[in-house]
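Students often ask why inverse folding is considered easier than folding. One informal answer: many sequences map to the same fold, so there is more than one right answer. In these notes we will look at a single instance of the problem. The structure comes first.
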């Protein structure tokens, strides 16, 4: 069963665009591609970035979000911050779902549908040297991260867009190990 985002009970109800009263908001997971687009729209201003991500996380319109009382907005911003910076393991631990004992078997926060199948976990493979050489020839850090993530997961580049941001973060932690740790690290029981 996939992880379910929390509901936020509003301190002060707001009026929906359709005239209805909104008393609670079912928060949504942030997805990698949508987050990239929102951050590009927002530019470098941190407040604008949080606002764009709050729109994604709530599904509210600009007019609806502008009605939120500051404490409600701060709660949503806190959720957005966690969703943007913490790995899947944080959310699965909070919901007391079993986390995999094998760090190369990554349980996904939300299922990923690719090539006609639905995946609830990804098995990571260490990159071969030829792949890391190809990665280093790419121009931007984002392109390099996406290339090596696709290589290590067996996913196609467009599939990465459908990962939640915490799934992306979880994958980057382990892939960073693959790229920077010596062989002895992987033989050690604490790295498995």
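Output (designed amino acids):
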């Amino acid at each position: 069963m996939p992880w379910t985002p929390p509901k936020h009970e509003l301190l002060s109800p707001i009026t929906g665009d359709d005239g209805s009263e909104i008393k609670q908001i079912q928060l949504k997971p942030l997805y990698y591609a949508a987050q990239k687009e929102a951050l590009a729209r927002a530019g470098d201003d941190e407040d604008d970035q949080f606002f764009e991500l709050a729109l994604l996380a709530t599904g509210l319109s600009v007019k609806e979000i502008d009605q939120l009382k500051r404490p409600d907005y701060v709660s949503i911003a806190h959720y957005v911050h966690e969703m943007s910076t913490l790995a899947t393991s944080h959310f699965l631990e909070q919901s007391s779902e079993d986390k995999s004992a094998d760090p190369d078997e990554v349980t996904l926060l939300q299922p990923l549908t690719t090539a006609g199948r639905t995946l609830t976990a990804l098995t990571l493979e260490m990159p071969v040297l030829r792949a890391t050489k190809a990665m280093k020839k790419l121009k931007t850090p984002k392109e390099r991260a996406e290339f090596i993530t696709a290589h290590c997961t067996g996913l196609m580049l467009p599939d990465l867009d459908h990962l939640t941001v915490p799934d992306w973060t979880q994958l980057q932690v382990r892939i960073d190990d693959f790229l920077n740790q010596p062989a002895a690290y992987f033989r050690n029981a604490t790295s498995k």
